[in-house]
Amino acid sequence: MRALFFNQFGGVEQLQYGELPQPQITADQVLVAIKASGLNFADIYRLRGNYHIEPHTPYINGYEGAGVVAAVGAAVTDYQVGQRVFFADVPLAQAEYVVAQPEKLIPLPDTVSFELAASIALQGLTADFLAHDLGRDQPGATVFVHGLTGGVGQILAQMLTADGINVIGVTGNEAKRQLALQQGAKHVFLRSTDWVAQAQSGAPITTVYDGVGSALAASLNIVQPRGKVVFFGMAAGDPAPVDPVAMLSSSKSLLTGDLWDYLSDHSARLKRSQRLFSYFQAGKINLTPAQKFDLSAGRAAYKRLLSEHTGKIILTVGNKSSDVVRTAD
């Protein structure tokens, strides 16, 4: 099979594209032919060697994707060859085929494309648990979202808006600001301005969704007393240490969580994915089209992820569309 792989940790230059043996399934496993796989910052961390990665020789990155069942083990009864599926936590996904445990797979409706599923599996399910398990904001509340036009940010902001919540936030440039406004945000500040003062001058903020990390102190500063900061990532660097005594004195809370503690079983995957898809099927969430790269152009895709970009980046397998980048670098 064709795969994107690496033999040692490091930078993008370690990535290689070529033929590897096709994986074999056991009686309780499913073989999935990948049509599209998502690229995330966690893949950068795994490539560098500072994040958990599934042991394999050579290493194959990626945990998120969508495709068609190519084979099923003798003991598998829930899936059939030819069935459309997607997943958010099956390792070795940046390849032509991947082996999955049936409970990790989620049936993919015909109304959802492989490319969209690979774009929203991880980030969409993340937005779902942030909004509905941690934030739990009530209609009419005002919340602040960092990185409104990022992968999680676009989905989260529109999900909250659809739930009747007023969304404000901050982003990096005017084009991104206009996109966030078009997607329903009430007010969007530029990070180059005094956005903290601007945020504090408006309606009280009940929740701040912070996936950038380095802004955590500012997030705690702008949230109202008895409000909360939902912390879910470090896209812009590690946060400074938090003083719990200061939080105590202002009655502010810091919440965080790991998606995998919420995707605890197959029924949770089904319930959460159906809720996520319902927003898209009702036209309540519209995303910037994903930037698509052929699997053979994996280095270029990783470089794009590390550059200034908007929306999701996905790797496609066997996609003949003219808008897929196919250059090797």
From TrEMBL:
Highest taxon above the source species: Bacteria
Pfam families documented for this protein: ADH_N, ADH_zinc_N
Residue span, Enoyl reductase (ER) domain: 10-315
InterPro entries: ADH-like_C, ADH-like_N, ER, GroES-like_sf, NAD(P)-bd_dom_sf
GO cellular component, one term: cytosol
Alphabetized GO MF terms: mRNA 3'-UTR AU-rich region binding; NADPH binding; quinone reductase (NADPH) activity
Gene3D superfamilies, per database record: Medium-chain alcohol dehydrogenases, catalytic domain (3.90.180.10), NAD(P)-binding Rossmann-like Domain (3.40.50.720)
Residues in coiled coil: none
Alphabetized UniProt keyword annotations: NADP, Oxidoreductase
Protein's name according to its UniProt entry: GroES-like protein
Organism: Loigolactobacillus coryniformis subsp. coryniformis CECT 5711
